[in-house]
Hints:
This protein is of the alpha/beta class. The protein has 2 domains: 9-39 and 172-242, Rossmann fold (3-Layer(aba) Sandwich), CATH 3.40.50.10090; 42-170, Rossmann fold, CATH 3.40.50. The chain has 10 helices and 11 strands. A 6-stranded mixed beta sheet has the order 3-8-7-4-5-6, with helices on both faces. A 5-stranded parallel beta sheet has the order 2-1-9-10-11, sandwiched between helices. Helix 1 (20-28) links the parallel strand 1 (9-12) and strand 2 (32-35). The longest helix has 15 residues, at 68-82. It is elongated, with a radius of gyration of 20 Å.
Amino acid sequence: MMLPLKNKLFISTRPVGASGELNRLLHEAGASLLEFPLIEIKSVPLSSEEKQLFSQMEQFQWMILTSANGVRYFFEILQEVTGTQKLPESLQIAVIGDKTSKTLEKYGYRAAFVNPGSTAEDFAEPFARHIATENSKPNIVLPLGNLARTVIQDHLKKLAECTRINIYQTEMPEKVDKTIAEKIETNRYDMLIFTSPSGIHHFTELFPKLNKKNIRMACIGDITAGAARENGFEPLAVAQGSSPEGIVESILNYYISKT
């Protein structure tokens, strides 16, 4: 059996519990994966006005959910505020990517608009065309993370009334695994895996003295890769898809190109 990544060691910086499928795929290719979370996702305390919006979802015609985390935190807050996870039948839901769509289905809802891309840029223009035919400006609610960019709101501002609610925040974990940190500092790994700009920023805070030219990393998407380059790194592999399969494929392609 051919194992293209035999004996290679990868380190995932994804949040706790988010690397299971990635670990399985790398293991099947002969590699090992260590989890070194550089992102911790927490709920955001909401104001009374923001909580009230959860009780008045009928005023919105659309809700845009951009990530699986957004789906989970939205329904947790909805349950907490209203005592139910039931949404008005008139509210249509748009999502970015299949992973977000599948997470939404776990709560009993099917997205009315699914964009196959994985970024706000991928989503904004197709969705703008989708709502451009509506008779009046729709009211749209966007439950997002605190670091989410304003791409969607900016693109839709002439077509819709957008209300943003920050429902979760991304932070640096309070503790990191010192054993894995030492492996990084002593160059005893093959590649680090980053899935968001936050992970890149937290890495630079945690390892300010490392020679950035010596850091070997794979990134999900151009946004994360761009953040890496802005901070002085050069990704060896960039996955266009945000799935574990996309990450592993980009890593395999890199090593194949080096043979």
